[in-house]
Amino acid sequence: MRLGIISDTHGLLRPEVFETFRDVDRILHAGDVGPEDLLVELEAIAPVTAVWGNTDGFDLRRRLPEVVETEIDGFRFLLLHGHQFGSPTPEAVNRAYPEAEVIIYGHTHRPLLTIVDQVVTVMNPGGAGRRRFDLPASVGIMELEPGIPPRARLVPLTAADAD
């Protein structure tokens, strides 16, 4: 299974996302979505599982959960925005959710792909919307195959100095 991982769109769905997510089976959105219509656009690519982030309005908060714990292809996933932790770190999220094998969060706009506790894959796809902190806009791709650790990569959508 191939997953598209996205966060912090803040209402901007860049055209590059459609090409990058062209072959994904499912999309995980880690919050700060923006208008609900953005999720409809993503659903044209693949089924979407999303959580609300701290900047999302009450319409999205009524529609989406704050945290999703689910199994995907035999892996225990945790999907959350990360605002619950102030400035989240992989270690802090892992301590709060020790059962998760794959942790996806956003909030910081800083792309991150790491392993915690030798077995937990943690990804922050970075911000896919308007650029912040002089970082390129980015998303993630994760491939799951039962019996082997998830394979994942971060995908820049813009050059480091582009808007």
Structure description:
There is one protein chain. With 163 residues, the protein is α/β, with parallel strands linked by helices. It has one domain (2-156): Metallo-dependent phosphatases (Purple Acid Phosphatase, chain A, domain 2), CATH 3.60.21. It is 16% helix and 30% strand. It contains four helices and ten strands. Strands 3-2-1-9-10 form a five-stranded mixed beta sheet, with helices on one face. It has a five-stranded mixed beta sheet with strand order 4-5-6-8-7, with helices on one face. A hairpin with a 3-residue loop joins strand 7 and strand 8.
| Number of helical elements | 4
Taken from the alpha-carbon principal axes, the silhouette is globular
CATH topology: Purple Acid Phosphatase, chain A, domain 2
Helix content: 10-25%
Q: Approximately how much beta-strand content do the residues carry?
A: 25-35%
Order of strands across the main sheet = 3-2-1-9-10
Gyration radius, in Å: 14 Å
CATH architectural arrangement: 4-Layer Sandwich
Short description, anyone?
With 163 residues, this protein is α/β, with parallel strands linked by helices.
Which characteristics define this entry?
about 160 residues; alpha/beta; Purple Acid Phosphatase, chain A, domain 2
Which SSEs are present, and which pair or pack?
Layout: E1 2-6, H1 15-20, E2 26-29, H2 37-43, E3 48-50, H3 58-63, E4 67-72, E5 75-80, H4 90-96, E6 102-104, E7 112-116, E8 120-124, E9 138-143, E10 151-156
